[in-house]
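Good morning,

Attaching, inline, the backbone tokens for the sequence recovery test we're adding to the shared suite. The designed sequence is right after.
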């Protein structure tokens, strides 16, 4: 079975940067493709910032930082990724955008190269045809923040070969992460359970069971979660949670996955959580304060 040596990462946003960082840190020459040089630079700076924080916390050594940075390249031309053994896609959650990339890559990638999507909401099989290699296409789903979260879901479709799945599992272990295997059904394992949990927290707030702070405190101190559900919603992004919930609702047609009205209204208001400065909490205050939602 051919080992993965070189990695190509498509998209240098939050997830793409994190994936590139852990891949480079594990010794894989890793090329990040962004659509502009400015975005490539933004990705490089994000990785440098994370490494600096890791050093500050005593979790990353100077040697690890230079290995990681030495293994990274940032490009805009897809052709520069042609010699990758594994492509991990972390671009916008838009099937047309992803499929256009896969079909371009199929023209230039080696026949034995594996195509992996980090999608959290789309069905992997919907990309398999465009990839031109349905047996070598699968999902490799990381969690945010990628350098800190140990878990990676390895998602097989109905056409993924056993060898492809095995190569992906070996790659994830080589990153020092813990893989779990999942089928290509919406939500895989973690979001299948996490999305209804976050939805239930919003419903509890809508029906005035308790305040944002007390629901968060309840799950942190009563169930040992590192973050309460509203802090987590703001951390993941309300638009992202909304989109995943919509897709899961469309797939399963069960009300437990339906996005609650308050979530939709907050997304419409541009209250997307930490990334927009305001969600269930207002991040213009330090420490953040609960937002007024007119409830
Ligand atoms: N590099 C390396 N290590 C770092 C680091 C860095 N840049 N920054 C922090 N660390 C280390 C710290 O030293 C600490 O290690 P220790 O526990 O051994 O002391 C550990 O990482 C935790 O760091 P912090 O103390 O800064 O932060 P917290 O204790 O507040 O934890 C957190 C932060 C890990 C984000 C934690 O709050 C958490 O696990 N939250 C839940 C996150 C979660 O659920 N993510 C999944 C979201 S869902 C998703 O991604 C799926 C998608 O499809 C939607």
């Amino acid at each position: 079975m051919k080992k993965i040596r070189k990695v190509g990462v498509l998209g240098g946003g939050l997830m793409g940067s994190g994936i590139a960082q852990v891949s480079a840190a594990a010794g894989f020459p890793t090329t990040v493709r962004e659509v502009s040089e400015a975005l490539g630079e933004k990705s490089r700076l994000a990785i440098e910032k994370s490494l600096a924080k890791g050093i500050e916390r005593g979790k990353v050594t100077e040697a690890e930082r230079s290995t990681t940075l030495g293994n990274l390249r940032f490009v805009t031309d897809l052709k520069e990724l042609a010699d990758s053994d594994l492509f991990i896609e972390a671009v916008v959650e838009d099937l047309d955008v992803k499929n256009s990339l896969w079909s371009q890559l199929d023209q230039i990638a080696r026949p034995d190269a594996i195509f992996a999507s980090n999608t959290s909401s789309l069905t992997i099989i919907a990309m398999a045809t465009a990839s031109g290699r349905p047996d070598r296409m699968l999902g490799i789903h990381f969690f945010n923040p990628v350098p800190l979260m140990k878990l990676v879901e390895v998602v097989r479709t109905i056409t993924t070969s056993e060898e492809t799945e095995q190569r992906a599992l070996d790659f994830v272990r080589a990153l020092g992460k813990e893989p779990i295997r999942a089928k290509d059904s919406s939500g895989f394992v973690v979001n299948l359970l996490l999305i209804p949990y976050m939805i239930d927290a919003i419903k509890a707030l809508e029906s005035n069971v308790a305040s944002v702070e007390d629901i968060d405190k309840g799950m942190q101190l009563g169930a040992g979660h590192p973050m309460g559900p509203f802090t987590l919603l703001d951390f993941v992004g309300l638009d992202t949670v909304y989109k995943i919930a919509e897709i899961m609702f469309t797939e399963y047609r069960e009300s437990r996955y339906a996005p609650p009205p308050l979530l939709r209204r907050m997304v419409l208001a541009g209250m997307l959580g930490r990334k927009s400065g305001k969600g269930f909490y207002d991040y213009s205050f330090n420490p953040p304060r609960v937002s007024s939602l007119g409830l």
